[in-house]
Design brief:
Blueprint (H helix, E strand, L loop, with lengths): L9 E4 L5 E5 L4 H13 L3 E5 L5 H12 L3 E5 L2 E5 L13 E2 L4 H12 L4 E5 L10 H9 L3 E6 L3 E7 L8 E3 L5 H11 L5 E6 L6 H8 L3 E6 L5 E6 L8 E3 L4 H13 L4 E8 L6 H8 L3 E10 L2 E9 L7 E2 L11 H8 L5 E5 L11 H11 L3 E4 L3 E5 L11 E2 L5 H10 L7 E3 L12 H7 L3 E2 L1
Parallel strand pairs: 2-15, 3-14, 6-7, 10-11, 18-19, 22-23
Antiparallel strand pairs: 1-23, 1-24, 3-5, 4-5, 7-9, 8-9, 11-13, 12-13, 15-17, 16-17, 19-21, 20-21
Helix pairs in contact: 1-2, 1-6, 2-3, 3-5, 4-5, 7-9, 7-11, 9-11
Bound molecules: shikimate-3-phosphate.
The site of shikimate-3-phosphate has 10 residues, from α5.
């Protein structure tokens, strides 16, 4: 089990207009996958812009424990992979800390190997459901000799001699589950098919194609996607430049919108359409977000974003948009706290199984700071106060959740009274530079 240092509270207060040009760290989803696919491929993969956050470093350690050679020199990571099908049994349990993506994708990656692998994590990760990945793996022939109650960590997987290809319809909108099955298929003979009724982030499909996997995607008239992958082919190392993470960008972005007099630029942000739901929603709310210098880099759209403080108005966010902004609801709720009128967000059931129950953590944090809101089973309504008057003054329980910590530090930049969070240590999982970057823009955070 992961050791925990004592809590480190933090506080933010009403700030003067933010200004400056910044870059946010590399995309977390692409960073995990770069190390995994690089670690599996033949030859070298060179990665620049990798997110060096705790979650991603856990994935690097796991890949090393299974035979990949990984080193970092002057900002470039070099991964020498084992070759597809040639991962080795790790000598010790793989500890993924707080990282859901790391553990779920790796369970897929190694589940179909004829070896025994044990997975552990921190108290937050140990509460999260893993049955969503174990179910398809069991169908492929993987045994689960050890799992906590309700298919939770710690979990031990024992792979079959020869895995069985399946057709699997993903029952919830989850890129992690889709990816776990696709990665399990890499060591499975024949064709595995994943049906995804609602499109989620497509980094696994795109990147596997780049590494040379035999993978095809077909989308039907209703938008349901059928992804077919042929296992046991060769993967070849790649050169990857990881663009800035739109989910990390969301924090300085919303901060600039709500702190009057702000004008900032965030450079080199990933604009993959499966990730841009927040920008669309904020634009509907009246946000001044300009996309500058739009370009394509390494097969992905990227842009620089210019953000000026804006008068926001409440909107209704439709449930079908949730997959493209699933990690951004905490910070959208913060923007909504300063919007005129009510913002209603639907389709939030998956928020209950993130690093924390994010739906209740957000509602509790808003209430602790006198923001008027209502938590539904799978919805959240926030009634804003554009001047921030009488808001703030509360302490937010972050529940080992980095995005709860960052979202509420952003809230305090525009509330009348300061906002305290009980622990900022988890911010290091996805955005180690957060405090310094925000202070550099003029945010009063201590
Ligand atoms: C991710 C998928 C999403 C997201 C997570 C990263 C990925 O999780 O919340 O931060 O990289 O595949 P779900 O698959 O649980 O929706």
């Amino acid at each position: 089990m992961t050791h925990h240092s004592p809590r480190q509270p933090a506080l933010s207060r009403r700030s003067q207009g933010l200004s400056g040009r910044v870059r946010v760290p590399g995309d977390k989803s692409i960073s995990h996958r770069s190390l995994m696919f690089g670690g599996l491929a033949s030859g070298d993969t060179r990665i620049s812009g990798l997110l060096e956050g705790e979650d991603v470093l856990r994935t690097a350690e796991a890949m090393k424990a299974m035979g990949a050679l990984i080193e970092q020199r002057e900002g470039t990571w070099t991964v020498r992979g084992t070759g597809n099908g040639c991962l080795m049994e790790p000598a010790a349990p793989l500890d993924f800390g707080n990282a859901g993506t790391g553990v779920r994708l790796t369970m897929g990656l190694v589940g179909t190997y004829d070896m025994t692998t044990r997975f552990v994590g921190d108290p937050s990760l140990s509460k999260r459901p893993m049955g969503r990945v174990l179910d398809p793996l069991r169908r492929m022939g993987v045994q689960v000799p050890e799992a906590g109650p309700g298919d939770r960590l710690p979990i031990t997987l024992k792979g079959p001699k020869h895995a069985v290809p399946v057709t699997y319809r993903v029952p919830m909108a989850s890129a992690q589950v889709k990816s776990a099955v696709l990665l399990a298929a890499l060591n499975t003979p024949g064709i595995t098919t994943v049906i995804e009724p609602v499109m989620t982030r497509d980094h696994t499909e795109k990147m596997l194609q780049g590494f040379g996997a035999a993978i095809e995607v077909e989308t039907d008239a209703e938008g349901s996607r059928q992804i077919r992958i042929e296992g046991q082919g060769k993967l070849q190392g790649q050169v990857i430049a990881v663009p800035g993470d739109p989910s990390s960008c969301a924090f300085p972005l919303v901060a600039a919108l709500i702190v009057p007099g702000s004008d900032i630029v965030i450079e080199n942000v990933l604009m993959n359409p499966t990730r841009t739901g927040l920008i669309l929603t904020l634009q509907e709310m009246g946000a001044e977000i300009e996309l500058l210098n739009r370009r394509s880099a390494g097969g992905e759209d990227v842009a620089d974003l210019r953000i000026r403080s804006s008068e926001l108005k409440g909107v209704t966010v439709p449930p079908e948009r949730a997959p493209s902004m699933i990690d951004e609801y905490p910070v959208l709720a913060v923007a909504a706290s300063f919007a005129e009128g009510e913002t209603v967000m639907h389709g939030l059931e998956e928020l209950r199984v993130k690093e924390s129950d994010r739906l209740s953590a957000v509602a509790e944090g808003l209430k602790a700071n006198d923001v008027d809101c209502t938590e539904g089973e799978a919805s959240l309504s926030v009634r804003g106060r554009p001047d921030g008057k009488r808001l703030g003054g509360g302490t937010v329980a972050t529940h080992l959740d980095h995005r709860i910590a960052m979202a509420f530090l952003v809230l305090g930049l525009a509330t009348e009274k300061p906002v305290t969070i009980d622990d900022r240590s988890m911010i290091a999982t996805s955005f180690p530079e957060f405090m310094d970057l925000m202070r550099g823009l003029g945010a009063e955070i201590e």
